């Protein structure tokens, strides 16, 4: 298992490397900014979905070693989400000809899909900050409760994608359905666990 984490790290970084390669070799679409923004956002959502899927997969299959990759995958979700947000903010500022966040804030308030995307990112922020072993020790049991924000982040990200494309067919619906199914599984297990604890 020594090589497993480096291999997983390389696999998670591969979409970014491919995106950089496409950018430097002129293989982006006619609208490169939109292409990069969509690609980074989509990979952020994919890694959020994978993060959510690790615990159910571990419980169903018994592959307990999967849990050691969850934090890495979650941090890569934040990495791609940060790129996605940075490109969006830079593009808005460039269009408006300003270096202030006023037009970004106005866009967040005006367009619901941007609001949902911002909620997803803000929910991920404390998860990324407290992902170190030091924070896990300091927070104790509160760390697990805090990291349930991943549910909100994944739901908001799926909603962001659905509202962005404005078409309730295809991949946005599939991702939303997967997120709903994964959250439903967790809800069922939580209710079952609660019933077992009751006298």
Task: Please give a structural write-up.
- The protein is mainly α and 199 residues long.
- The chain is built from nine helices and no strands.
- The longest helix has 30 residues, at 32-61.
- The model has no long low-confidence stretch (mean pLDDT 90).
Secondary structure elements and pairings:
Layout lengths: L3 H21 L7 H30 L8 H27 L5 H9 L1 H18 L3 H7 L1 H6 L2 H17 L5 H27 L2
Question: Count of DSSP E strands?
Answer: 0
Biggest beta sheet summary: none
- Low-confidence runs (pLDDT<50, min 5 residues)? none
Average pLDDT: 90
Count of helical stretches: 9
| Class per helix and strand makeup | mainly alpha
Order of helices and strands: HHHHHHHHH
CA radius of gyration? 18 Å
Distance between the termini: 42 Å
How much helix is in the residues? Answer: over 70%
What percent of residues are in strands?
under 5%
How many domains? The number is 1
Gross morphology is: globular
Notable features of this structure?
9 helices; 0% strand; mainly alpha; 199 residues
Short description:
Helix content is 81%, strand content 0%.
């Amino acid at each position: 298992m020594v090589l497993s984490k480096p291999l997983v790290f390389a696999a998670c970084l591969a979409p970014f490397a491919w995106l950089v390669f496409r950018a430097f070799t002129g293989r982006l679409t006619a609208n490169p900014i939109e292409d990069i923004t969509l690609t980074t956002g989509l990979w952020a959502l994919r890694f959020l979905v994978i993060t959510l899927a690790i615990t159910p997969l571990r419980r169903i299959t018994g592959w307990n070693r999967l849990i050691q990759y969850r934090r890495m995958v979650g941090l890569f979700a934040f990495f791609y989400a940060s790129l996605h947000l940075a490109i969006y903010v830079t593009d808005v500022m460039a269009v408006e000809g300003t270096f202030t966040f006023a037009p970004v804030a106005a866009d967040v308030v005006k367009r619901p899909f941007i609001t949902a995307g911002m909620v997803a990112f803000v929910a991920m922020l404390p998860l990324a900050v407290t992902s170190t072993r030091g924070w896990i020790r300091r927070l104790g049991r509160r760390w697990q409760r805090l990291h349930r924000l991943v549910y909100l982040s994944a739901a908001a990200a799926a909603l962001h994608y659905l509202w962005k494309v404005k078409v309730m067919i295809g991949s946005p619906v599939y991702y939303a359905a997967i997120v709903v199914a994964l959250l439903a599984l967790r809800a069922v297990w939580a209710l079952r666990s609660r019933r077992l604890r009751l006298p």
